Amino acid sequence: MKESRIIKLESLIDVGQKMVDNAKLSGNSEVLWKTMVGRESIKGSRDLMKTQTETAVAGYQEVDGKKLGVAAQRASNMILAAAHNPLGFVTTVAQESLKSDYDKFQSASFAGATDVDYGKNFIGAEYYSDKDLDKNLGLSWTLNVRALETQSRFAETLYPTITVDSNDVGITIRTKITTVTRGVMNALLAKDSVEDNRRPLHDALTDHRVLQDDAIRIVPYIMEDGKNAEFFVDPTIIENTTVQLGRVPAYPTNYLNFEQTQLNLFRLAAHPGIVTEGYDETDEIAPGAALGEILLSVRKKGEAIADGALFKINTRDMQYSTFQRPAEGGGRELLLNFRATVFTINGKSKDWKGNEMPALDALKANGYSLRFVISVNMSMHTTGDRSGFVDITGKSLRIDSVVTADGTKLPINEGSVKTILDNIQLELYGWRFDGTRTNENRRTQGLMLDPIWEQENYKLQYGSPLLTKSPIGQEYDDAERLDDLISAVNIRNESLAVSQTLNYTEQLREVVAAKVTAYDKSAIRGLGRHWVSAWFEELEFDVSKHIQTSDTKDALVNARQGLLNRLGDQVTRAIQESRYMPALRLLTANPDARPVVVIATDEPTASMLLLQQGETRILGDRYQYEVVTTNDDRWRVKDADYNSVTRRLQWVLRVDQENDGSYCVLNWGNHFWSPVMVTNINIQRNGGVSKELAVQPRNAHINHCPIAGVILIKGITEFVAKKLAYYVELANAPTDDTNLGPVDGSDGAGA
């Protein structure tokens, strides 16, 4: 009499052995070998692999009732390929891995990490010298397929399995990062050079400056020797600013003054970094040019401009601020007729530095507002023989009115109002041009999109061999021993998933603590760091401190809601601050994409604080979620001094996509599995020879996306056991309408 599990396993072994035998007889195993191991291109091999996959899926489903996953399907074909050359299947990669070419590949485990079983560069000689590999192909097929299909939900959710080719010594993980660059310029002098400050394209979804390009803007340039200084306002009154257009070195600029009534914008903007010999007849000012800003001097009567205040007026999008084509003329002239525009200043108005303006103290004291009208007239030639010329044909500023707080107009030519106005001097001091070149002559290059393939290489190394004794005479039909190996492989994989999560989380904690700006690229493993900003936070949650009711039935509801609030806050802040959402939508080409929040914890936390009957939306409708649990002791820490347990709740992010055997660098990680062979080996133990069934796994858990949060939960069991246990004594009500008396049953004597 055997357990149902063993009977089912025997049936799977029969399915696997039958598939192996058929593949060898038909020659399909040789085709699969040449295609999957030899990497040859053989006509019809794709259809063959599809047929073999369908056969494996049907056979497995007939026995287990479940569909075979993608990782197991690929492992099935790899074992069928091994049927052509079992010894070569085992030894090729073992010999290849000893080559120095792979010494630079990273190890799957972290330096100094504990509790991991990665790191062996070799395979025991007795393992691949065995001559009975072909007799165990049915066992090998079953072990690979069954181990991948019955892996714990905890490990498979955090690290979905991808089956790699058996002859792959290492794993190369790649991702394409499209960068935005304005180019680089290496000049003789450092001041004339421009660094290549490229940024990832997906950063533009958060920072608009990534795709903001001013390369064809017309911005006047103040020459270092001051030869054109007469066209600009005095830099001692308002400091020069710097501007960088495209890959042109940053240069100084300032407001143009109104004193020079004729100027040429192309001449003033001809920085050597833009044009070597100056603009020519092919350059043209684009339509839409406007009066961008006006700088107003606000000072007391008799004060110098330097002693007064400066008031900025943004006119770019105001009525009449755009240069327009006149009704008559040659078509190359544009006119500006900025007129009848009323502005207001009062005691609350601030100068360009945000300070109060002393000249307006009298207005502030009386609660008055001063209205004034500015008119500016200009003509500009966009191209041709007068290309870039601007003539200021008129400018004026007049006081319109003074009004009280309730809008009452006051006479401005008499009384106290006249006295106030006589002591205020308003003057048009400077202006800015806002316009671009058409760039039809392609003089200036704009933004360049430059794709960069980032990659990481990991060496797929061997774990420790797993062995189990085989009864004599049953070496090649040992379902019970194979069941032990499958269980050991699954438990080992879950343990490795926990170890890798804990180790990577500690690395993440350190790199996040060292971040300076939100756009720092952290030096941590995982190609997801090129897409998102590394994020980590650890919080504590004491159940007893979040109970706000004495009602037993509502106590855990309070605790649960408190935990979910903390969890929801942590998740939403992480997704925002790490810029995960724009990266997800760009990487998946899906504007509606949302992440899946994977919550890893232990059973008491999941059952008592996360999952309640009838509630399927832990974090609301915004994100999907998935809760997985582990019984690993490292997921909870017992404090013997206080007789309490701290339970770990850690969440990570996963992309909601079909498992098609591919990886996504915005997932927490992946489990890479190389199909392995089961063999019988002779082991000398205690002076005797023991026939043992053996397997040596070759796999790795690799992390991709450095985003995680941890909540350490305290006091679940203690609260339920101690604070929810109330002693209640029932008593019959007295017939004389008196009180029941003390609840302890005493008569209250001596009280």
TrEMBL record:
Pfam families: PhiKZ_MCP (PF25620)
Cited InterPro entries: PhiKZ_MCP
Domain of life: Bacteria
Protein name (Swiss-Prot/TrEMBL): Major capsid protein
Organismal lineage: Bacteria, Pseudomonadati, Pseudomonadota, Gammaproteobacteria, Enterobacterales
